[in-house]
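Working notes for the structural subgroup meeting. M.R. asked for a predicted model of this chain before we commit to crystallization trials. I am recording the input and output together here so anyone reviewing the notebook later can reproduce the run.

Input as submitted:
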Amino acid sequence: MTGSPVAHSFALPPRTDYVKLPAVVKTDDEQYRARDLDLSPARVIALRAALIADVALHFAPDIVLVDHAPLGMKGELLPALRALRRDAPDTRLVLGLRDVLDEPRKVLQQWAAQGMYDAIETWYDDVLVYGQHDLFNPVTAYAFPPTLAARTHFCGYIRREDAVRPAADLRAELSLGDAPFAVVTTGGGGDGPALEEACLDALALLTGRHALPAVVITGPLMAPEERARLEERARALPQPVRLLPFHPDVPGLMRASALTVAMGGYNTTCEIVAAGCPAVIVPRASPRLEQDMRARAFAARGLLTMLPMGRVAAHWAAPARGPAARHRADGGDRRRGGAALRRSRDHDHGTVHAGPA
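Returned structure, recorded in token form:
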């Protein structure tokens, strides 16, 4: 079950289907509204809750994996969790958490006020952390009680394992020729215009032999008027700049690029490290520090460069003008929960190995 507006764009494994939930957008910390439907926040949450509970009971799963929010958005999972415990007691309930949620002080306050520690212990049999404890350890940072820590398992950083298209095919598709090019991506794109505008400013500084074509993936959630403004700005640049709302093979574009500039979301950061491309991360700093904290941890390992928004135009082009260290993440086993970054780095080959955390 997913509320993603682009779920249909990804290939599914055999014998797999999904149920689309009404999409929502975040308006503030812990505040949401319906993305497309003319429904109040309370009604769209009630609709999603009913759908989730109905599907969970009719599908009768052996395992339920809940991503990120233990009780869902505004408690929308509670009806399903109660029903599964009552009517399907053998179903194993598993919570999956990203490596970083937010600054510890804030998480501790929110989880204590919301009774989240008790809720996780009540409803979940296991907790999987999509990360590596020597980069960031949520068990200690967020003060998991001993009984919760005992059922928590680190399964490594997750990367997409679908095929990545050859660079030549992607270049031909986007008419990029043989020259080096940059990729700019801001995930869903709802808060991406500032970074993409800063990158267009930076591209304008690269003239003559330093001119750098670019593929800018604005994201499906960007407002049409913002996208139109960026398109107009891109047309004024001397080098070719392709603006796309979405591309199914962002990891392939990253691998083919001379430089990737992105915000610091979990999926994007993992894709960058796995692709081994020179990268600049410009993390979002509000309403949560998740991206900032993750970017700092990865930058401390030398896996990427982190910049604040105000320094993008002045600094982001430097890696594209000269050699940059490549950091490769080798593929992991899906049975381990995804690819993990080993503690040690191979300094001779610039490699970050994948393996059990």
